[in-house]
Amino acid sequence: MRLLPLPLALTARLSPVAVLATAGWALSSGPLAPPPAAGHEPAQNKTATQSASAPSTSAESRSYTTAPAPCTSISAKTIGALVPGAKTAGKEIPSTDVKLRRTCSWNALKGYDYRWLDVSFEVLGSGDQARKSYQERTTEKSGGGPVPGLGDEAYSVVNLTTEDKQQTREGEVIARADNAVVVVTYNGSDFETKKAPSTDEINKGAIKAAKEAMAALKGGQAGQAD
Asked: Which of 19, 64, 97, 146 could anchor a disulfide with 12, C-beta 3.0 to 4.6 Å?
């Protein structure tokens, strides 16, 4: 009978179970094991190889990684129609992270008519995060309704406010495409009549701007997945 190596023999005096397990490893997988047959890979190596080659599914893919330039997301023609007298270049609002959040603003007073337009882009880490942001925003804005055909989901609401007898009507469109959220705010006042533009005018203007902003998002960023 072949003698066990000295360390195993000494260990056997203290723990027979441990040495039997060790000896079994030495004979089956350790230095005393016979070489594997040609064409056969050891099970543990095969498992490790499979794990290394298998694609990772833990990270959720994203369609958008950066926010597009907001001041070029709306055409000069649309700016001229929605905000008469405004500089079409717009003014970008400072952001703490321009890669993920960007906003551009246009405003002008032509005669007694005042108009203001904001377009914002927010890129989040995943579609789930964007859905949560979208739901929180739309929950805060009651009284609106869905906008069909705009991104994955979209919502529009118009509200009228009055201060010192001056009316202002403001519309907001919130739209989501995968992991990005687009928000458009459009409002107006007439300082001569103290009346506000109609709900239809403000709502249609906000939706028109939102559609162009969504097209800019998809045209400039789609396909840049992580």
From this structure: 19
Q: Which amino acid is at 177?
A: A
pLDDT, tens only, 125-166 = 999 999 999 999 999 998 999 999 999 999 999 999 999 999
Phi and psi of 36, rounded to 5°?
Answer: -65, 150
> Considering the domain boundaries, does residue 61 fall inside one?
no
Rounded to 5°, the CA angle 102-103-108 comes to 160
How is residue 71 written in tokens?
A: 């001041």
State the burial class of residue 119 (Cβ atoms within 10 Å of its Cβ: 0-12, 13-18, 19+).
Answer: buried
Range of the domain at 101: 70-221
- For position 161, which CATH number holds? 3.40.1000
- What does pTM read for this prediction? 0.71
Query: What is d(CA 210, CA 147) in angstroms, rounded to the nearest whole number?
Result: 10
Please give the Cα distance from 178 to 182 (Å, whole number): 11
Query: Which secondary-structure segment (H or E) carries 213?
Result: helix 199-221
The token pair that represents 185 in the structure block: 């705010």
Domain contains 144: yes
Q: What amino acid is encoded at 131 in this protein?
A: R
